[in-house]
Write a structure and sequence with these properties.
Strands 1, 2, 6, 7, 10, 11, 12, 13 and 14 form a nine-stranded mixed beta sheet that branches. This protein has a three-stranded antiparallel beta sheet with strand order 5-4-15, with no helix packed on it. A two-stranded antiparallel sheet has the order 3-16. The chain is an alpha+beta fold. Helix 7 (349-359) crosses helix 9 (393-404), helix 12 (442-455) packs across helix 14 and helix 12 packs across helix 15 (487-498). The chain is elongated and about 95 Å long. The longest helix has 20 residues, at 245-264. The protein has helices at 74-86, 189-206, 245-264, 310-318, 324-335, 339-346, 349-359, 364-381, 393-404, 410-423, 427-433, 442-455, 457-465, 470-480, 487-498; strands at 17-19, 22-35, 94-95, 98-101, 111-114, 124-130, 139-152, 156-158, 167-169, 176-182, 218-227, 237-242, 272-277, 282-288, 298-299, 306-307. Magnesium ion binds at residues 31, 221, 238. Magnesium ion binds next to loops.
C-alpha cells in the first residue's frame, strides 16, 4: 500500500550530493523484513529452526495441501505487539489478514498471507544517532515508521544445485515475518545504515527477531529517489532483498548517483525493482515495479480478523526490557558517559548487562573506560563475544576497585588484566601475591627520585628553566620502580626536589 507522501522529516538534513547542475537530496524509505523469533511458524506448528535438512520443517499447511486451514500462532502476535511497543507505535486492537496473490515455485499456496489495509501496528518512531563527526558529535534524527504488519515468509528456490533443474526448499515457507515500513524520512546512506542498525538492536533487545542478517533473518528493501533540496519527491527505485548494512550504504550511494546522472541528462526515472551486485558495486534492473492492484489483495476467508484487548497489550508492555534509548539516557544522564561511549555499550544488550554488573556500587565512568578500552579491545582481537569473556564482571570490578583506592596504577592494572585473562584469579589476591602494589611510601619514592636526579645532573639543571622536563624525570622514576610508584606522589616529589614551583 503506497501512502500519500508527505515530508515528515525533522531536523533539516545537512548533507546533499553535488551534481553537475547543483545540489541533490537523496530520499530513502526502507522496508525491513524481520523473521519473528518463535518456535513454530505463523499459521502452522512446523519448526522454524535454521539450518535444518531441506524440506524437513514442512507441515501440510505449509505445503498448501487441499483443505488445510491456517491457525494463528499467538506467540507471533505477541512478538509483533512487543516490537510495535519498542518503536513507540500505535497498536491496532483489530487487524486483518489478506491474501497477496502471485505465482512462484517457493510459494505453494499461490498467495502469501499478509496484512494490507489493516496492519497490526500503525505509526511509530525509531530514533537514530548519526556520527560521530570529526568533533565527536552525533546528530539525533527521528525516523517515522509507517506500519508494521505480520506476513508469511516464502521458501527458497535453489538454482545452483543441478545443471538442468531447480530445487525448492520449503523450510522457510510460512515462518512469521514482521515487515516494518519506514516513512521516506532518511536523507543519506549513513542515516539508512544507522536506522537498520538501530532497528536490529531494538528487536534483539526485545528478543523478537535475532537480527542475523547473514542468515537472512533480517532483509531490507531499499527505496531510493532524489530531488532538488526541499522540492517535490521524485520517482523511487526499490533495491530488493539486501542483507548487509555495508552493502545497503553502497547501494544507496550508487543508486542516487545513477538517478542524478539520468535526471541531469534530461531523462526520467522508471519506477522499477533493482538488484545490488556487491562485486561490481552497482544496482541493475530486475523488473518494472508492480503495483498493489497487481496482487489482487483480498481478506483471507480462512482467517477471522485478529482482535485483542488493550489489557493484553498492557500486559506485554509491562514485561518489556529496558530499551536502548532509555539505557543511553541513563548512561549519559546519570553515569556521565559521553554519547560515543554510551553508544558502544548500548550496541549490544550483553555489553550493557556486563557494564551494569561492573558498575554496581562503583565509579561508572571508570568501569566504562575499562570495558571499552581494555576488555572490548582484547575480545575483538581474539574474536570472542563478551558472553564468552574469560575475564568476568567481578574481576574487572576488582581491578577498578584497586585503581580507585590507589593500590595499583593504571599501568599495573593493564598487566593485572593480562594475567587474569590468561590465568584467571582474584585481582586483589594476585596483586598481593606478586607484589604489584603501588608504592605510596614517600621514603621509597624519594630515594628513587634522588637517584634519578643524581644520575642526570645536566637535565636537573635545565629543568629549573624548562619545567616541562619534570615529565621526563617522572617517567624515569616510574621506570625505575617498575611502574609501581604512585604517579601523583612522584610528580610532587620530582617538582619539589628540582625546585620547580
Ligand atoms: P511497496 O510494497 O509498493 O514497495 P510500501 O508502502 O510497502 O510499498 O513501501 C514503500 C516504501 O517506499 C516506504 O518505505 C516508503 O517510505 C518508501 N518511499 C515511498 N516513496 C518514496 C520516494 N519517493 N523515495 C524514496 N522512498 C520512498
Ligand atoms: Mg516495497
Amino acid at each position: 500500500m503506497t501512502p500519500v507522501l508527505v515530508d515528515t522529516r525533522t531536523p533539516e538534513p545537512k548533507r546533499f550530493i553535488a551534481g553537475a547542475t547543483g545540489d541533490w537530496e537523496v530520499i530513502i524509505g526502507l522496508e525491513v523484513h524481520a523473521q519473528v523469533t518463535s518456535k513454530a511458524k505463523l499459521f502452522s506448528g512446523a519448526s522454524t529452526k535454521f539450518g535444518a535438512e531441506a524440506n524437513s520443517n514442512v507441515s501440510l499447511v505449509d505445503a498448501a495441501m487441499p483443505g488445510m486451514l491456517p491457525v494463528i500462532n499467538e506467540e507471533c502476535v505477541a512478538q509483533a505487539v512487543r516490537t510495535g511497543l519498542g518503536m513507540k507505535a500505535k497498536i491496532n486492537l483489530r487487524s486483518v489478514f489478506d491474501r497477496k496473490n502471485y505465482f512462484y515455485p517457493d510459494l505453494p499456496q499461490g498467495y502469501q498471507i499478509s496484512q494490507f489495509k489493516d496492519p497490526i501496528v500503525g505509526e511509530g518512531i525509531v530514533n537514530i544517532s548519526v556520527g560521530p563527526d570529526k568533533k565527536g558529535n552525533f546528530e539525533e534524527v527521528e525516523i517515522g515508521v509507517e506500519r508494521l504488519h505480520l506476513e508469511q515468509d516464502a521458501g527458497k528456490s535453489m538454482h545452483d544445485q543441478h545443471p538442468t533443474m531447480s530445487f525448492v526448499d520449503l523450510n522457510r515457507t510460512g515462518i512469521a515475518l514482521m515487515e516494518v515500513v519506514s516513512k521516506p524520512d532518511m536523507r543519506s546512506s549513513d542515516e539508512a545504515k544507522a536506522y537498520v542498525t538501530k532497528l536490529r538492536t531494538i528487536v534483539r533487545y526485545l528478543g523478537t527477531c535475532d537480527g542475523n542478517m547473514d542468515q537472512g533473518s533480517m532483509r531490507v528493501d531499499v527505496n531510493v529517489s532524489v530531488r532538488r533540496p526541499g522540492g517535490e519527491f521524485g520517482t523511487r527505485c526499490e533495491i530488493k532483498n539486501m542483507n548487509s548494512i555495508r552493502f545497503i550504504g553502497q547501494a544507496i550511494e550508487y543508486e542516487a548517483r545513477r538517478q542524478i546522472a539520468i535526471l541531469e541528462d534530461g531523462g526520467k526515472i522508471d519506477q522499477e525493482t533493482r538488484l545490488f551486485d556487491p562485486v561490481k558495486g552497482e544496482t541493475r534492473s530486475m523488473r518494472s515495479k508492480e503495483d498493489a492492484h497487481d496482487y489482487r489483495y483480498f481478506p483471507d476467508p480462512d482467517l477471522l480478523p485478529l482482535v485483542f484487548t488493550q489489557e493484553y497489550v498492557d500486559e506485554l508492555a509491562k514485561d518489556l526490557p529496558e530499551l536502548p534509548d532509555e539505557i543511553t539516557a541513563r548512561l549519559v544522564g546519570d553515569v556521565g558517559l559521553s554519547a560515543y561511549d554510551a553508544s558502544i555499550i548500548v550496541s549490544e544488550k550483553a555489553i550493557v548487562d556486563y557494564f551494569d554488573a561492573v558498575a554496581k556500587g562503583r565509579d561508572g565512568k571508570l568501569a566504562a573506560n575499562w570495558i571499552i578500552n581494555n576488555l572490548l579491545g582484547k575480545l575483538n582481537e581474539v574474536s570472542t563475544t563478551i558472553d564468552a569473556s574469560p575475564v568476568k564482571p567481578d574481576q574487572i570490578g576488582g581491578i577498578v576497585d584497586l585503581i580507585k583506592e590507589g593500590t595499583i596504577s593504571g599501568k599495573i592494572a593493564k598487566d593485572l588484566f593480562e594475567i587474569i585473562w590468561e590465568e584467571g584469579g582474584d585481582p586483589a589476591a594476585i596483586v598481593e601475591e606478586r607484589g604489584m602494589k603501588q608504592v605510596t611510601d614517600t621514603g621509597a619514592i624519594e630515594a628513587a627520585v634522588d637517584e634519578v636526579i643524581a644520575a642526570n645532573p645536566d637535565k636537573a639543571q635545565q629543568a629549573v628553566e624548562k619545567p616541562n622536563l619534570a615529565g621526563w624525570f617522572v617517567g624515569q622514576v616510574m621506570k625505575a620502580t617498575g611502574g609501581k610508584a604512585n604517579p601523583q606522589a612522584v610528580q610532587a616529589l620530582v617538582r619539589q626536589k628540582l625546585g620547580i614551583e
